[in-house]
């Protein structure tokens, strides 16, 4: 948030929002029927753009509220993907509440959902049921494996999709999960792009539609550089797949499996000029991926590497050993001086490079602060929060955080009243345990 923006209460949202929000989705009503990451983060992006996002939670809250709680019902995993929403904590098994939520959905512009398979139909909150009363409805659903095929309807979380999709990294000790759930966040981005596209289509046709983003498809998008088969050079892949079938049966060591792929793949990796190197006081990452950059770096370091300087150079039989020799020479030079020195030398010559930082260091980095890539919010129970800012900068319709994530049931009463319920009925639902209010 920029320093000249102030947070003011806004009665229609019941939470703090940046004054004079000019986001592209101001006036848009969004119902979030989601859990975990992809759907909540997508809905947060819409809230940052000014949409009124109503998050419908069970009476014990979104599951992520309990993932490493700081205090009851408040966890880091909930705080970082639910800001600027209204929380309605209700039991959808109650017929009166189910009717109220259906009324909300029938008047909504967008619904974002990731119910367990079959649950939406049971509740009457699926697209086919709701579109009968709202033909302009955009219904964005996040599935695990897609809507067709033998795995359609199979529950899925990030780890399962990483494993199934080939995204899990294969190391000497076996497959390793990426620590960040990148598939879920990619799915959220694809959902938000799909919703924006559907809204544009609706403006021209007055017709809504259903959108599906599968976690499995998102995993393939993340591997777009390598997820392909090209007939002219694809024989190696079939050989490798056949090799794997036998290797698994024979409990072949993971090192052998990795080495066999390196032997078969037709295009060598970037090699000696790409990756991490140690300096005298830290670590530097160099990404000289093209021949011209590699040649420039070899000249700067006074390295004799005919691979990048001689157009007629013929690779040796053991190209991996050759790359390792050059890399060792580069490392022996970089270790002699500081990270700052090599950043000046290499960056000054146009070679892409950067110091290595942990995430803990990045949060305080001046580049982050100068660009407002993180923002400060005040939570009514936890106090100050520094969180990742809305991720796109718009000149005319800026994204702005509409306040922190809501405490459980913060807006239950006001939203249920909007559906036509009376205060007495809301109180009864609370006393019966079918709704939660935060007072």
Question: What's this model, at a glance?
Answer:
Helices cover 38% and strands 18% of the residues.
Describe this structure in words.
The protein has 439 residues and is of the alpha/beta class. It folds into 3 domains: 7-222 and 363-436, Crotonobetainyl-coa:carnitine coa-transferase, domain 1 (Rossmann fold, 3-Layer(aba) Sandwich), CATH 3.40.50; 231-264, no CATH class; 271-361, formyl-coa transferase, domain 3 (2-Layer Sandwich), CATH 3.30.1540.10. It contains 18 helices and 18 strands. The strands form 6 sheets. It has a 7-stranded mixed β-sheet with strand order 12-9-8-3-4-7-18, sandwiched between helices. Helix 6 crosses helix 8, helix 7 (182-205) crosses helix 8 and helix 9 runs antiparallel to helix 10. The longest helix has 24 residues, at 182-205. The radius of gyration is 26 Å and the shape is elongated. Residues 1-18 have low confidence and may be disordered.
What's the CATH first level of the largest domain?
Alpha Beta
**Low-confidence segments:** 1-18
Q: Please work out how many helical segments DSSP would assign.
A: 18
Structural shape: elongated
CATH superfamily of the largest domain: Crotonobetainyl-coa:carnitine coa-transferase, domain 1
Please estimate the helix content.
25-40%
Give the strand content. 15-25%
> Would you give the CATH topology of the largest domain?
Rossmann fold
The overall average pLDDT, rounded, is 91
Number of strands: 18
Q: State the end-to-end distance.
A: 28 Å
Major sheet:
7 strands, mixed
Strand arrangement in the largest pleated sheet: 12-9-8-3-4-7-18
């Amino acid at each position: 948030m920029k320093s000249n923006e102030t947070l003011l209460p806004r009665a229609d949202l019941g939470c703090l929002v940046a004054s004079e929000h000019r986001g592209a989705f101001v006036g848009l009503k969004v119902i979030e029927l989601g859990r975990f990451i992809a759907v909540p983060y997508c809905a947060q992006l819409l809230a940052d753009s000014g949409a009124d996002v109503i998050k419908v939670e069970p009476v014990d809250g979104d599951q992520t509220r309990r993932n490493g709680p700081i205090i009851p019902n408040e966890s880091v995993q909930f705080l970082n993907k639910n800001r600027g929403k209204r929380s309605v904590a209700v039991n959808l098994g109650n017929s009166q509440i189910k009717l109220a939520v259906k009324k909300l959905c029938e008047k909504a512009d967008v619904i974002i959902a990731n119910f367990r398979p079959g649950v939406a139909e049971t509740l009457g909150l699926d697209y086919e049921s709701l579109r009968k009363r709202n033909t302009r409805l955009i219904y964005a659903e996040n599935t695990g494996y897609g809507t067709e095929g033998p795995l359609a309807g199979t529950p899925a979380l990030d780890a399962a999709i990483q494993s199934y999709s080939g995204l899990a990294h294969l190391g000497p000790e076996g497959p390793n999960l990426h620590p960040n759930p990148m598939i879920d966040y990619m799915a959220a981005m694809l959902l938000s792009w799909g919703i924006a596209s559907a809204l544009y289509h609706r403006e021209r046709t007055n017709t809504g539609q259903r959108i599906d983003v599968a976690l499995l498809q998102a995993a393939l998008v993340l591997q777009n550089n390598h997820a392909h088969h090209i007939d002219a050079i694809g024989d190696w892949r079939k050989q490798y797949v056949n090799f794997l079938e036998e290797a698994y049966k024979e409990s072949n060591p993971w090192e052998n499996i990795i080495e066999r792929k390196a032997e078969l793949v037709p295009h060598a990796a970037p090699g000696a000029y790409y990756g991490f190197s140690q300096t005298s006081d830290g670590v530097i990452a160099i990404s000289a991926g093209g021949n011209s950059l590699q040649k420039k770096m070899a000249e700067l370091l006074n390295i004799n590497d005919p691979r990048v300087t001689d157009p007629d150079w013929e690779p040796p039989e053991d190209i991996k050993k050759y790359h390792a020799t050059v890399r060792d020479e580069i490392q022996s030079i970089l270790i002699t001086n500081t990270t700052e020195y090599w950043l000046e030398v290499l960056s000054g010559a146009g070679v892409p490079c950067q110091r290595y930082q942990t995430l803990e260091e990045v949060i305080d980095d001046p580049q982050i602060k100068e660009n407002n890539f993180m923002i400060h919010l005040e939570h009514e129970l936890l106090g100050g929060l520094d969180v990742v800012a809305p991720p796109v900068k718009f000149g005319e319709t800026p994204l702005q955080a509409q306040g922190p994530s809501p405490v459980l049931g913060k807006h239950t009463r006001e939203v249920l009243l909007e559906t036509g319920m009376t205060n007495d009925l809301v109180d009864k639902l609370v006393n019966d345990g079918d709704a939660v209010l935060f007072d």
